[in-house]
Batch of 2 targets.
Target 1
Amino acid sequence: MPYKYVRIAGNRRQVGQALGKLARPLMSVYLNQSSTWDALRRWRGHPYVAELGQQAQAALPEIWEELEGLADGLRMPIEDVLLWNCRGDLLHSTTDGCTTVALKAADGSRWIGHNEDGDPYLYGRCHLVDVALEDGPGYLSFYYPGSLPGHTFGANRAGLVQTINNLRTRQRHPGVPRMFLARAVLDCTTLDQAISLLQDLPHSGGFHHTLGSATEPRLISAEVTPGSVSVLEIGTRYGHANHMVHGKTRGQAQIITESSRERQNRIEGIVDGWSPETGSSDLLAALHDKLGALPILRTDEKDPDGENTLATAVFEIRDEEVTLRVYDRKTMADIALDVMSDPD
């Protein structure tokens, strides 16, 4: 499998510490080979980074406590851990990619599928963390070493599902860093609560959030940028890559890579052919599509964006039930987890 499954329980600081300890053996080597970290280091000690930290601590003190625990577990200065978790707010382009699809089926079920694309070095070196919090619903999330969970794919015990796609916005505004916001969504219990969180807090970076819930039939596409927030309810089917496509946001200054453009065009063509009878095998086939020089499934060591598919997730959402299946890009092995049930 492309990850290890780990259970964690405790308060905010304890959970952060456990996440840091998971990543500690790898973190130094990981950062040393990372072009993103190389670009970030020039921001060390910059007042703007300190301001982002202050905004995060003021708006989301519980998540800040997790970051403090993460730094403790990693045995790294919190300034460096904050810097790493602000990478998309500081750099216009990072090695965080992804493609997401969504579908409402004829039987009332909702489906969200997602390719987690990132630094090829991380293939086989990530975790799927199953977190039980003392003061929150708890969640499952794909976990990058040293990064707050939530900015990849995940779902919580309240039945809220979230997948994230990187947006390469050219804007920088003081606000709450995007990875803090994505993590905070997994503490929400309803779609309206999650949408309000994204709309009400100031944001310093850009993410696309696909949201679903086991307690209502809506699926949501939200492009959250420093300039604005665009929230659309998905009709029957949808596909999204790594640039802004909503009418409200697509005119903003952004970087659209050739890979993102090609994947967006290809995924739109695929989902346009779906019907309400489409099922999980169709979502998986779309996400593992290899057509074209810059395909949706990304395995090329020379990928122009420096990204490869690390894992593929398919969420099946029914009334009071969420099932997560995670697939490997190579072996097609999968694990099925009932998200809303407490672990044994």
Note: The chain has a mean pLDDT of 94.
Target 2
Amino acid sequence: MTAHDAAVMAALCELDHETDTLWVLGDICAGGVASMETALEQLAALRVPMHLITGNHDPVHPIFRGAQRHFANYSAVFASVQQVARTKIGGQGILLSHFPYAGTPDRLSRTEFDQYMLPDLGKWLLHGHTHTAERRSSKRSICVSLEAWDLRPASAEEVADEMSR
């Protein structure tokens, strides 16, 4: 296990399986079947309920031809595997997606993910994808990539606090 993976898993092991639920907003691995298998094995050891919003590095994401052949592997670890979800934080409706809102500049200026990006129609969005330390990607979107939160998941309270800024 790399130092990065060890740090991430240490933070995840601190979650309380009785009170916490983990939403992973994509990219559990670096891509490829071997990386996927290692990541799923590590995550399967956690006792906290987990849900996955698929990311562009996850072989189960529909960006990949044949992605459905990996669905059973992911479903064995995650309570749900989907591309978009909704929840509430601080009484506000929140969208969950791997990608930032459409029109948010991608740091690599790529357009191949545009069809998977939601339009900003006024709701808050939590997303991953950017892998940067920046927590805000626009007025109503917050990046919850581990890189923006010291290699640990952001809590609902921290997200609510970020939304109030």
Note: The mean pLDDT is 93.
